[in-house]
């Protein structure tokens, strides 16, 4: 056990799995070099934010592959490599670039197992940065996990901490289906104690980061930390919260959410993706359909407005959910009159 950043936890997961299984390969823009360096020369950097640093040196150019700036080509190549027996981990630098390669994911990788009667496997992972908070503006700040969650055949993973990131990534690499592994770009320097040895965290099993009696808060990815911060403040005011980290949106642990809502009778959902057809909508519908009788107050969503992510620092802060907005939502739901905090 040692203190590791989110970045280091992901790097360690990749390194340990590449040592364990020679079929694991990496590919993506600058994963071997970085900042314009040629393969084998700039390994000291390791990608746009240094996540793959050092892996080229240990595993060589046959397993750590710099690709052209053509998402369609290398995501398609990853799907083909997976179908023929390798276990590629492809880095899509920003999830916003999925539009350049969506057919390879939507109509190819996600469909292989179903189209071939369960006889085909596609053990590939697509890692991608997502989320606002980095002043990266509208084309590099989106949270598109609802898009992937909507596609049958994909597994969608959204870790909330370094510990979660390592265990979930190892599980993703060992999975026989295509996995979308989404990393919030603001979290790369977050640190916590992470085991040095290899471990896995099962998909579809939510994590209760704390338990309370008054309100259930379901939060996605980076929002989990904000929810816990809000819960700390609320506890000092006599309001205790259960905070649920789903970990994966597909598969999705419905039972844990329903059980917790049955106990508290109140639900706040925190989601940084666009408010139309997002996970907050999905979770709200789930509870309304299957636990409506347990609700003591209307469900409240803490979500951004339905606009592109702004570049301006104060506007981006206004756009995003926050611990303060979550705290306000919980107080409102305790008064039984809030609907949504934007």
Automatic annotation (TrEMBL):
NCBIfam families: PRK09212.1. It comes from the Bacteria. This is Pyruvate dehydrogenase E1 component beta subunit. Gene3D superfamilies: 3.40.50.920, 3.40.50.970. The keyword Oxidoreductase applies. One of its GO terms (molecular function) is oxidoreductase activity. The keyword Zinc-finger does not apply. It holds the Pfam family Transketolase_C. Residues 4-190 form the Transketolase-like pyrimidine-binding domain. Keywords: Oxidoreductase, Pyruvate.
């Amino acid at each position: 056990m040692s203190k590791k950043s989110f970045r280091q936890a992901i790097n360690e997961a990749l390194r340990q799995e590449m040592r364990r299984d020679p079929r694991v390969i990496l590919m993506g823009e600058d994963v071997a070099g970085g900042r314009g360096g040629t393969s084998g020369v700039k390994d000291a950097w390791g990608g746009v934010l240094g996540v793959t640093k050092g892996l080229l040196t240990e595993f060589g150019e046959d397993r750590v592959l710099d690709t052209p700036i053509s998402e369609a080509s290398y995501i398609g190549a990853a799907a083909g490599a997976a179908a023929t027996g390798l276990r590629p981990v492809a880095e899509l630098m920003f999830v916003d670039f999925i539009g350049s390669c969506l057919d390879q994911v939507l109509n190819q990788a996600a469909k292989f197992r179903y189209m071939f009667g369960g006889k085909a496997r596609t053990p590939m992972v697509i890692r991608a940065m997502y989320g606002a908070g980095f002043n990266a503006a509208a084309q590099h700040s989106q949270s598109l996990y609802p898009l992937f969650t909507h596609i049958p055949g994909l597994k969608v993973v959204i870790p909330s901490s370094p510990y979660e990131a390592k265990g979930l990534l190892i599980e993703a690499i060992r999975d026989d289906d295509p996995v979308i592994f989404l990393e919030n770009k603001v979290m790369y320097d977050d640190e916590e104690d992470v085991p040095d040895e290899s471990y896995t965290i099962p998909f579809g099993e939510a994590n209760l980061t704390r338990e309370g009696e008054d309100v259930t808060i379901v939060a996605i990815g980076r929002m989990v930390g904000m929810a816990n911060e809000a819960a700390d403040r609320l506890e000092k005011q006599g309001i205790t919260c259960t905070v649920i980290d789903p970990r994966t949106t597909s598969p999705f642990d419905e039972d844990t959410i329903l059980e917790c809502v049955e106990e508290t009778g109140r639900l706040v959902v925190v989601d940084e993706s666009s408010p139309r057809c997002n996970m907050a909508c999905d979770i709200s519908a789930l509870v309304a359909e299957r636990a409506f009788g347990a609700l003591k107050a209307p469900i409240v969503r803490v979500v951004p407005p339905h606009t592109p992510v702004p570049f301006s620092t104060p506007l981006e802060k206004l756009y995003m959910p926050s611990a303060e907005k979550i705290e306000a939502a919980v107080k409102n739901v305790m008064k039984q009159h809030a609907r949504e905090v934007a």
